[in-house]
Specification:
By secondary structure, this protein is of the alpha+beta class. The chain has helices spanning 2-26, 29-45, 55-68, 104-112, 119-136, and strands at residues 73-78, 88-89, 94-103, 138-147, 152-161. It contains five helices and five strands. Strands 1, 2, 3, 4 and 5 form a five-stranded antiparallel β-sheet that branches.
Length: 162
């Protein structure tokens, strides 16, 4: 397992170098390119999954897709003490807070020495958007609330049906 993880980390450091170069070459357009790549990946890997009616079911399906494809994006829903439920109704749709404790992208960015919140993070947002389109038939957005060394805290908003 350790050897597999080290091999993955080496590949991810290479990806971090590519992302850094892409961001330098094309500027802010790099985030859009990475987002679309993530959407395509999310759609492809979630093809054929049964429909989910709730965000909790959809997140379980996304987690399973990630694990079955050996992607180390381990996340969990997070309910703060002041919220009555995990999933909240918001202006843009239903929302849930997610904590990413073991993120291969964050670890790769640190190993390469590149800042968080760039194009590789946008690839993750795209992945969730593509997967949730397949699983729920709804649009979604994933936003960083806090990007840290040990974990990232993000807000997932699942909006209207598409």
């Amino acid at each position: 397992m350790i050897e597999q993880r080290l091999a993955l980390q080496e590949a991810m450091v290479f990806l971090g170098a590519i992302a850094s170069g892409l961001e330098q070459a094309v500027g802010e357009s790099a985030t859009g390119i990475s987002y679309l790549a993530g959407v395509n990946l999310g759609r492809k890997l979630s093809e054929g999954l049964p429909r989910a009616e709730t965000i909790e079911q959809a997140l379980a399906a996304v987690r399973e897709v990630l694990l079955s494809n050996n992607y180390l994006w381990l996340f969990e829903p997070f309910q703060t003490h002041d919220k009555p439920a995990m999933v909240q109704a918001g202006e843009e749709g239903e929302e849930v807070m997610l904590v990413f404790r073991d993120c291969m992208i964050r670890q790769s960015l640190f190993r390469f020495g590149h800042a968080q919140k760039g194009s590789l993070c946008n690839m993750m947002y795209g992945f969730f958007a593509g997967a949730l389109q397949n699983v729920m038939g709804r649009e979604s957005s994933l936003e960083i609330v806090h990007a840290g060394e040990n974990a990232c805290y993000k807000r997932l908003v699942v909006g209207r049906a598409i």
